[in-house]
Amino acid sequence: MALLILAIPEEQAQEVETKLAIAQRAWKLKSALRTPQRLLEMLRSLCLQRQQSSPTEPLMRQMAQKAVNILWETQEGYQHDMTIGNGGSQRREERSWWAQGPGCFERIGVWEHWIQQDHSSAIEGMLDGVTFKNGRICVKIDDAQPSFQISMQDGRVASDYTIESSR
């Protein structure tokens, strides 16, 4: 088992809280983007529940964040506050997280590095990759990979690559 304890001086508490909240949000979004098909299916489901057949960009961003949170909460083992990616256990002037199993020291080190970085623009960039066009919800992870898409009409998932190769 590996444990990370982050000391938070009282005079920096608000600044650290804000930074941790952004880091958590970016971590969860990054996690959801590892399985773009699941993210697309969740987004489509949310659109159908809200009867949004042609959602606007602001609504897509809002639903993308909701879908990310739902996917995060349904992952096995991620319900505990001290789990990497969550808020951590809070005591007086510290926060703590834990990891267990093979590779736990590496994972806790990655989380420690992650929470020290500013992820504000990364979140915006990732959310910019979630769009709606031509009756499809699209998720673009990065410029090096094709975007993934799901049809609002029939729920079929495809990527730019499969769409191009089927023409």
Describe this structure in words.
This protein has 167 residues and is of the alpha+beta class. The protein has one domain (2-120). Helix content is 48%, strand content 18%. The protein has a four-stranded antiparallel beta sheet with strand order 4-5-6-7. A three-stranded antiparallel beta sheet has the order 1-3-2, covered by helices on one side. Strand 2 and strand 3 form a beta hairpin.
Summed up:
The chain has helices at residues 13-33, 36-49, 57-74, 104-115, 120-128, 160-165; strands at residues 2-7, 89-91, 94-99, 130-133, 136-139, 148-151, 157-159.
Number of strands: 7
Shape: elongated
What is the domain total for the residues? 1
Largest sheet: 4 strands, antiparallel
Termini separation: 51 Å
Give me the number of helical elements. Answer: 6
Give helix % range: 40-55%
Low-confidence stretches: 163-167
Radius of gyration: 18 Å
Structural class: alpha+beta
What layout of secondary structure does this protein have?
Layout: E1 2-7, H1 13-33, H2 36-49, H3 57-74, E2 89-91, E3 94-99, H4 104-115, H5 120-128, E4 130-133, E5 136-139, E6 148-151, E7 157-159, H6 160-165
Helix pairs in contact: 1-3, 1-5, 2-3
Please supply descriptive tags for the structure shown above.
disordered C terminus; 6 helices; 48% helix; three-stranded antiparallel β-sheet
